Amino acid sequence: MTQEITNFRSLGGYQAQSGTVREDKLFRSGQLNGLSSQQIDYLANQLKISRIVDMRGAEEREQFPDSTWADVNYQAIDILKDATKNNASLSRMITNGGNVYDNMMMTYEQLADSNSAITGYQKFLKDVSTNDEPLIFHCFAGKDRTGVGAALILKTLGVDDSEIFDDYLKTNELRKTANQQILDSIKNQATDEELLAVSQALKVNTDYLAHFFETVNNHAGSFEDYLHTTLQLDKDFENRMFEMYVK
């Protein structure tokens, strides 16, 4: 069932600083539009997910509205609202010109230092650290905005960097079918060069996430300073995260 929800997985199972990340609390995915009743039942009744955080922009949300269910708390946090170059939405992937790699590196800089990303991740992590009801968070592809959100949580919990990057790269395998469907849907309107660019933009690259953390360290000094100075999370943030999400 979970394989039918694009790029879906739990953040659990990884070795944390003092235990293992719980598998029943935090989930990530691609956008949740057009879910079947069976998929909704799986999320709502089997996993008991009661919160959705949608990191997409207004245009994306309007074009592909999330499927929701009774009593679920839906929250939109537009992470890249302030971005001047954003290859994270489907429409931008198709229309943005230039070098995909350079554009994506710029997007990850903006995930680190744009005002909307800072306020967005601040709100997201504050909510995650004060309420441990099962939550699913996503963007369009579940790879960039969501990928950074997942990496921030796992790094806070003391998961090894190699495993954080392994989780990040799982997107390339879990999106194979969905990515091919996108390419098939636009092949009659796009040139071979444009199709290649979209194919590149639909994948994650370790350089992107590494560049995010490099930008964070360059601007804030350290990951801890990013959490407490840039995102202005309180001094007990990490302790609450350990208590709620590590067993």
Quick recap:
With 247 residues, this protein is an alpha/beta fold. It has twelve helices and seven strands. Strand 2 and strand 3 form a beta hairpin.
Features:
12 helices; alpha/beta; 247 residues; Protein-Tyrosine Phosphatase, Chain A; globular; Tyrosine-protein phosphatase; two-stranded antiparallel sheet; five-stranded mixed sheet
Fold and architecture overview:
By secondary structure, the protein is an alpha/beta fold. It has a single domain (2-241), classed as Protein-Tyrosine Phosphatase, Chain A. It is 52% helix and 9% strand. The protein is built from 12 helices and 7 strands. It has helices at 37-46, 58-63, 90-95, 100-113, 115-128, 145-156, 161-174, 176-186, 192-201, 206-220, 223-230, 237-245; strands at 9-10, 15-16, 19-20, 26-29, 51-54, 73-76, 135-138. The strands form 2 sheets. A 5-stranded mixed sheet has the order 1-4-7-5-6, with helices on one face. It has a two-stranded antiparallel sheet with strand order 2-3. Strand 2 (15-16) and strand 3 form a beta hairpin. Helix 6 packs antiparallel against helix 7. The longest helix is centred in the last third of the chain and has 15 residues, at 206-220. The radius of gyration is 17 Å and the shape is globular. It starts with 8 loop residues before the first strand and ends with a helix. The model has no long low-confidence stretch (mean pLDDT 93). It comes from Lentilactobacillus terminaliae. This is Tyrosine-protein phosphatase.
